[in-house]
Structures are given as C-alpha cells and as structure tokens.
Amino acid sequence: MNSLKKILGWLDRSERLLMVLAFVIMVATMFGSVLARNVFRATVSWLDELARISMVYMVLLGAEAGLRDGTQVRVTAIISKFSGKLRKVLDIIAQVVLIAFTAMVTRGAIINVQTNIARNVTTTSLNWPMAIPYMALVIGFSIMTLVQLGTLAKMVTKPADQFGETEEQV
Amino acid sequence: MTGVLLFGVFIVCLFIGVPISISLGISATAMIIFAQDIMAPATTTSIPLRFYAGLDSVSIMAIAFFVLAGNLMTKGGISRRIVNFASILVGRVQGGMGVALVLACAFFAALSGSAPATVIAIGSMLYADMVKAGYPGPRTAGLLVVSGGLGPVIPPSIIMVIYCTLTGASVSGMFKQGLLVGILICVVLIGLVLYYAKKENWPTQNEHHTGKDILKIFFDAIPALLTPIIILGGIYSGILTPTESSVVACIWALIAGTLFYHELKFSDLIDILYDSAKSSAMILFIISASTAFSWVFTFSGLSSSLVESVVNMHLSSTLFCLIVAIILLIFGTFMEGTAICVLLVPVLWPIAQSLGIHPLHFGMIVCVSNVIGTMTPPVAVNIFSATSVTKLPMGQIAKAEVPFLIGYVAVFFLTVFFPWFSTCLI
Fold first, then answer.
1. Is residue B337 within 8 Å of B379, Cβ to Cβ?
2. Which of A169, B88, B160, B398 has the most CB atoms less than 10 A away?
3. Tens digits of per-residue pLDDT, A72-104?
4. Residue A141 touches chain B, beta carbons under 8 Å
5. Chain A contact for B107, CB < 8 A?
6. CB–CB contacts below 8 A, A to B
C-alpha cells in the first residue's frame, strides 16, 4: 500500500506540473497570437495550434486528476440513498463500467496513434506528427484506467458497512 | 428502440454514480457496439477521435481563460475594490448594503462568468458585515444566492460560450443580449431589496463618505472597473474574438493583482493555475464527451426522427419554448448546468431550428434556466457556495431566497415569451 501511495504521490506531482505548464503555454501562445495580429499585423497560425494541443493535454490530465480525487461532476441524488451491501454492489458496478470504458478508449487511442504514425500524418501548421496530440488521449485514458483499477481493488476489500459514508479514493 | 438504448444507458450510468462525462461516452459506445445495423461503419475507435474533435477548438479555450481570469481577480483583490465601489454608489438608503450586494454581484459578473465564484467572492466580502449591521442572516444569504446568478448572465459567461460552441451561435451576440437581460434582473432584484428593506425594517447605512473618500475609492477601483471594458470593449469593437479577450483578461488580472493592488504574489500563481486548470478541465472534458454523444445521436438518425416527430405535432414556437423552459428547470434541480447544456442542447436545438426559433432566443432560455438550476435544491451550487460562506443550513437559505428567486424566474419567463429581449440588440 505504501508503494502505491508513493506512485500516486509522484503521479500527482508530475500531473500538476504538466497541467500548469500546458496552461502557461496556452496563455502565452494565445496572448502572443493577439499581439502578433494587433501589434505586428501578422498571423502566426502555429501559435493557435500549439495552444490547442496544450489544451488537449491539460484537459485529459485534469480529467484524470478529477476522477482520482472524486471531483468529476456526477449525480449523487439517487446513489446517496443507498448504503451497506447494496451500495457496495452498485459502486463496484459503476467502477467496473468506468474502467471498461477508459480501457476501451485507451485501446482505440493507441490504434489511432499507430495509424497516424504509419500514414505519416502531420499537424497543419507546426508539421508535427499527429501522433503527438493524439498521444494525450493514450496518456490520459491509460492513467485513468490504472488508477481506477487501484480504486476498484480498494472498494472490493472495503467492508460493506462503510459504503455510503464519505468515500476516499485510492 | 435505439433511442431507448442511447438514453437508457446514459440514465442508468448517471443513477449508479458514474461521472457525467464518462456516462456520455459509455452510452455513445453502447450504441456503436449494440446498434451496429444503424451505426456501421463506425467502430469503437471512433470514440477517442470524437473526444479529440470536441477539444480541438480555439473557441472553447475561452472557458479555461475565463476561469483563470476569475481566479486571478478573486485572489488579486479586485473583488474587494468592487464591493467598496458598489457601496459608495448606493449611499444612505434603507437596505443600502443589500443594494450594494446586488450591484457588487453585477460588477463581479462582468469579470467572471461563473455563479458560484460570484457568490463566494462577494459573499465573503459583504455577508458578515451585513449581519453585524443588523441585516437578517438567512434573507441576506438568499439574496446572495440569487444575485450570484447574475454571474453567468452578465457577460462574459462560460455557459454562453458552451451554448455557442454547441450550436454555432454568435458569442458576441449572446454577450450583448446577456448584458440587457442581466441589467433587467439587476433592476428587479434591487426593487425587491428596497421592498423587503421597508417590510422587514433592514438598517440604513450610517457610514458617511466625504468627497475625498469617494474619489479615493473610485481611483482605487479603476483597474478593477477597466476589466469589463477590456473584455467587452475588445469583443464589441471587433478587435478581439471572445477567446482573445478572455486571454487578455487573464493578463490584465495578473497586472492589476501584482502591479496595482500588490495582493497577488508569484508564489500563488502555481496554485491558481493548477486550480483553474482542474476546474476548466472538468467542464471541457464533459464537452469533449458530449461531442461523441451528439455525434452518435446525429449519425444514428435519432436526431432527425425526433425533429420529424416534434414537427408533426404542429407545436407553436412559443409553446415549444415554454416546454423547453420547463424541462430545463426540472433538469436544473438535480443536474449540473454544463451537463444539462451538453446533453440537451444537441437534442433540442435541431427542433428549435426547424420551428424557426432564433438561436439567441433559444440560447437565452438555455442559459438563464441553467442559472436558475444553480439556485434550486437538491443540486444547487449557489446555495452550496452560500452555505460555505454563511455557515447557515441549506434549507434555511433555500426558504429565504424564494422572493428573489420569483423575481429572477419572472424575468426568465419574459425572455421565454418575448423573443425581443433576446434579439433586440443584434
């Protein structure tokens, strides 16, 4: 359990750093684009493209962080009415469905990256391989799958009478 | 039958507690797997592509920038200057601090596009002082909840950017009309404050400001008051797009907080950037998932059959708007605003379009009803935020907000029945 906590701590710090970096790039490139257009009368299209790619990374890492700490928006009005064994079963079903979905998207994203590498597709302005922006999906969804598997393992071993109380994620 | 599959899977996932974004993705995937006869040649590898397509847009970047600008302004001392400025505008009338609260929320709304951010920023500045001055706590909290609802109506507005992204409507058009509807709500709320001040004997402000004080407060507030001018002036003059104006707002908030007010330290920036990235990622991830959901909804032919069946009912556009308003208000009581928008707009907008409803009129119905949802329990983020500021129980605030909520809803129905309020400035 300690090594799992260490890994999650490292993951949290790296994700935090990457998200902040992506956001700074977004602000800098979009502001650069405004200055280029209004002050220097020049259109620099790669700035917009870099901002968009940064946003994709920021959103997918942020979505993973939100899933991990349970801050992703969900409807709790119905599920909060249950507790004990029934709640444990429902929570495990929800978790299994979530993991199945994120694993499937990871698989699809890997196929898309491979296809783009094979066809040598590049972005329109930066001429970077399209695999770079698509890789955000692979990274984001694969971390989601692994972390949520850890949460599932914790759910299965947790006593049923603790379900329905405030639940911490792994 | 395919409609039952798409919406059935979505609702089941939602009710067992799967996050909204993932529920949207799962229902879209279920359609591809179990309804191959109508979804072919789509495969499950199309889902990540749709998620990517939902994010690959410059216009939705405005959401992240407005969230960041709002956080920079709150931490940078701008909200306090706005409260001080609103207080000197009101002067010594009975219930004056109540009026100042409404005005401060309106000014803050012109900086931030979020209702809970407005409630927390203004509530933490004014609530304690108002209660100390003799204002009834629950009623003040109720007023704060409803006035916070000006946040997403007075531009800039995150929910308006989301609506325009989904429908292709003009963001600057929505912002212009939002300003009008926001001012109307503001006037109604001030009227109600003055009525309740007399009825419940609210105190009169005793503090006297000299001309020198007024000038000092005004000059101190100038960098804060310049923010809406930069945001809206940039858009309306055509110099900046809404996304560009949102990034300029971030830079301006950074300059005002560090160089003018000296309240924002560079060491705070990492936390502000991380918090803003996480909250905006949550909204943008839902939008990304909804792109996959609405693509399946359209690709399967469900969208066109739904439009056809509603058109065959021969509803008038007004009756349709009324039905939509009621549906949105009901959804608003138990679902979060962004989720309602991304789930229902792709379904309802094609019908509205076929009935000839103006995109801005439909947008105003969606956006204002969305805000009302933030004030109506059980899922009411404005009340949750007010609870954290006032420490009052949720039920007490919900009861005390009713008169102001009725005023807000009255303006909402004006926008539903009279499209003029949503289109007159275009």
1. no
2. B160
3. 877 777 888 888 899 999 999 999 999 999 999
4. yes
5. no
6. 175
